[in-house]
Amino acid sequence: MDGTIYQFGGLPMVSGFGTAGPDHRARTVDDATAPLLVGVIRNPRSHRNKGLVPELSDSPNVMTRTPRTRGALVHDLAEFAAAGVGLLVVDGGDGTVRDVLTCGAMTFGDAWPQMAVLPKGKTNALAVDLGLPGNWGLQDALAAQSAGQAIIKRPLVVTAVDSPGDAQMMGFILGAGIFTAATDAGQVAHKFGAFNSVAVGVTAVAGIAQGLFGLGNGPWRRTTKMELELGEGRRPAPRCAYGKPGQRYAVLMSSLGHFPLGIRPFGSESRDINYLLVDEPLRRVVAITPLILAGRDVTRFEHLGVHQGHADSAMLTVDDTFILDGEAFPKGRYRIALGPSLRFVTP
User: Fold this and answer.
1) Radius of gyration of the chain (CA)
2) Largest Cα–Cα distance in the chain?
3) For 103-151, how does the pLDDT look when each residue is reduced to its tens digit (9 = 90+)?
4) The CATH number of the domain covering residues in 173-324
5) Is CATH 3.40.50.10330 the classification given to domain 8-154+341-345?
6) 99, containing H or E segment
7) Mean pLDDT, the chain, as a whole number?
8) What residues does each domain of the chain span?
9) For residue 36, what is the DSSP state?
10) Spacing of C-alpha 152 from chain mean position
11) For residue 18, what pLDDT is reported?
């Protein structure tokens, strides 16, 4: 989609997730006898879509759209809703999923059709969490939908509190602090042909090496001014005695539990909004990063500034850009909550 950093004032706004949006099953035909109507949002610039023809594009019950702008995406999703699409397919990577969820929120509200993801992007963390194989295609998704194979996932809803109208977006992985540098490193890995799990591995190794042996205040050892408050009571997130008050090295938040390469940054238990906080780039902390990523219990490292936990909502104030599903967003104050329950078809 167009642009590299969102302007929140131009985003579609959502009134809430307790009330269903417009009726997206508008067809008057009997659903029991009508073929499933499938709407495909295809990102032609996704890594594994370039130069290829869309699947089943000549099928009468498959509507394929390739919007080039977010405005066009809003229009296409509204068209799907009016037509009564029963399966919404996102043909692209994590960024395409983020855009579809964000732009579709004003149309579908809390009443989304079933969804499917075709992992065609440079990063496909949601597909990994859903257990999708790399060659998962539209035919596979249709077969799984027919068999009733699905799992419920809830994205994060990120609201720009100080933006006019409290503009919102939806995604699955939010990172700030060191994760901005990690995303930049991941883009470099993509340029050299490393994607998905390989790119994650390259970035992790580079980050550990820079964190251990980097000098001064380079991007891999710099802290960021940020505050994280948890729950409706806005209780301050835990922190250790090291470092400057109000500064953090990293925050990672997600409603997913499984990541590429078997990484489990939130430990063995995943629920609600999971978070991982690191207060300072202490070399002892960087050295145990492999244990943290492997999902080991890190409670014994809390005195060093490593914190894991869960919350049903949060407030993040950050003085630098942060990352949501691979894209940079401006500094500010953001309310984070869980979005609608989405039913994704799975193998």
Assistant:
1) 20
2) 67
3) 999 899 989 999 999 998 877 899 999 999 988 999 999 999 999 999 9
4) 2.60.200
5) yes
6) helix 94-108
7) 80
8) 8-154+341-345, 173-324
9) P
10) 15
11) 39
